[in-house]
Fold each of these.
Amino acid sequence: MTEFGVATPSITVAGGRPATATGKSLSVVSVRKTYGDVVAVDEASMEIAAGEFVTFLGASGSGKTTTLMMIAGFCEPDSGTITVGDRDVTRLAPQKRGLGFVFQQYLLFPHMTVHENVAFPLTLRGVPKDEIRRRVGETLEIAGLSGFGGRKPRELSGGQQQRVALCRALVYRPPVILMDEPLGALDKKLRDQLQVEIKAIQQELGLTVIYVTHDQEEALVMSDRIAVMRDGLIEQFDTPRELFERPKTPFVADFLGAANFLPGRVLQNTGEHTVVRLDQSGSLLNARRHDLASGTPVTVAVQPGRIRACAADEGFCTGTVETATYVGTLVRAGVRVDGGDASLLRLEVPAGRGPVTGERVGITADPDDVNLFPTEQGG
Ligand SMILES: Nc1ncnc2c1ncn2[C@@H]1O[C@H](COP(=O)(O)OP(=O)(O)OP(=O)(O)O)[C@@H](O)[C@H]1O
């Protein structure tokens, strides 16, 4: 385990950002867990670099917590292996793995002070008193809690209590910190603030963090990479940008960006674009170049923030603005497309330039923002 103040090697995490790592790498290989007939996690595999912030994102019941609990050691996989650094921990008891945890419930000892709570893991490990005082002081300072050491948990706000829980996980510099919905009990403003703080601490210390959430925005803001989980499977494991701009399945496009979907068929590939004829309007749409043959039935996917209203005779289809809702900096509009089954397209446009209800508009998108999925994928 790396100790405070010890120089550590420089590494490059996914995304190319150099960091000084105190965290270790983690490898999950073909891990499976069933409960009777329910396959909670199905052959999950991932390689996580030292110093990387990885989030498990998915709807309720998709297998996020079960995967985290198998890494923690609280739940034994039916098969597969889990390695921390170069140590196989698959069958080790949780306390022998030495990992750090932060849960939604802060689980602080109410009768102990903040200092005693944070010191607890070091006390358990028999660290000398002076060393404990020094490390607890340093850790509280990192989390902006200097001066709070003498308080009891009940004398702190929810956000401060969660920071104490984070300090307790940080204080013995575990090779990996596991966080299960740690901000779930806090209001939005505090959650936003703590997201930034946790990310800053993680980067500064080069921690390896595995974070569970069902909040897409939280995952996009905090993560180097996100594993999108669905029915026990990892649907895609990628950077936030790749997931948002290059989703590999309609599920990921919808889960991360609430994408608009339109059915169509590939007409041809030009140098830069794949041209699609839309089923509904019969009009043509340019998508970025995909490796799909002419005639392939496809689902066209575009995020609401990546399509624009234009003059009614321009764009790849026309329609009537059915709703236009002002939401601060944005207007969310619903446009009922002409013809066929008259799909409703959702647009997000900067407030002040938004279309108004009843207006006839064309719809356009930059080809690079248009993703195509062969229809057999379930789109
Ligand atoms: N101890 C258990 N016994 C039986 N089934 C379980 C058990 N734990 C989890 N499951 C099932 O395994 C599946 C995955 O559950 P898991 O808790 O990992 O999902 P999750 O994505 O973390 O959901 P949530 O966001 O609601 O916590 C679900 O169908 C769940 O009902």
Amino acid sequence: MAEVVLQDIRKAFGETIAVDGLSLTIRDGEFVVLLGPTGAGKTTALRLIAGLERPDGGQVTIAGRDVARQSPAERDVAFVFQQYSLYPHLSVYDNLAFPLRSPARRLSNEDVDRRVRDVARMVQIDHKLQNRSTRLSGGEMQRVAIGRALVRRPAIYLMDEPLSSLDAKLRAELRLELKRIQNELNSTLLYVTHDQVEAMTMADRIGILAEGRLVQIGTAREIYANPANLHVAARLGQPHINLLPVDLLPGATAPFGACTIGARTEHLEIATSAVGNAEVDWIEHLGDQNHLHIRVKGHKIVTLADPYLSVSPGDRINLTLRQPLYFGMDGERLR
Ligand SMILES: Nc1ncnc2c1ncn2[C@@H]1O[C@H](COP(=O)(O)OP(=O)(O)OP(=O)(O)O)[C@@H](O)[C@H]1O
């Protein structure tokens, strides 16, 4: 495994700037997730590291080597795509063994067999090794695709939304497995997604990407608690952060230049009060949590509902701020 460093990488497709001066270090053994909306440049960033695209400028180094002149095969990376891309005519076993059988690797049949069986156990597909890869469920196929990357020990694993085609339950399971496997192998992994839950549950550090630029990078906790600007604040947290005018609610003194307040559930105190400043609009029941929809002077606010707070639609409540986040005119965080 190795450290991978991107320095001021740029890539445009005609008029579209896909990656715009991206600098990022993925440390040896680190799991970094790039999180961003569609079109943010996530896939392009991976493809530039893999050598599937040429940058217009900037430098990529893998284990200290400038890889500009190296072909994808020479770069020693393993890529897992969004859609499983297995060899349909081969068994699960042969799909997993395929990357190990190139003559350049010179592995004995015993070594190949051991590695295939180890990885099959890791991704929990060892009971289906002899199945044709087409005779698998979507989740099983994606396990094989991930396993096929894992049999090798490349400098870095690059994963492009590998779980997005799976149903919610499987996605949750594989998320945990992938994190466990990465820990076990101590591998360097760059993973891209637009799913904040994936980013928060798996990443050592999350990089927030917007319009080809890295807006902020840090642990999930840092990014959630200390977003650098409105864009980052809006990317993490369920329900979404409430963005409100500074003078809407009592309880906090805005710093000079504050234009917008960011209030999550933990920044809002709710008390039942017949003469309160807000009204309960409706309660959204989501099973494991309920969202309380509130109206204040024409503004809508959504928070997690305290299960012990007994309110109904139409009730008045008193809403007070508790150390919210403040943003200036330009959307940058003030404190
Ligand atoms: N081969 C290409 N030719 C032209 N434009 C491209 C090409 N590849 C990407 N783009 C453009 O570059 C921008 C970034 O695309 P990219 O696929 O990297 O985004 P993304 O963050 O991975 O999005 P998604 O989540 O939808 O996959 C987009 O505007 C896209 O349309």
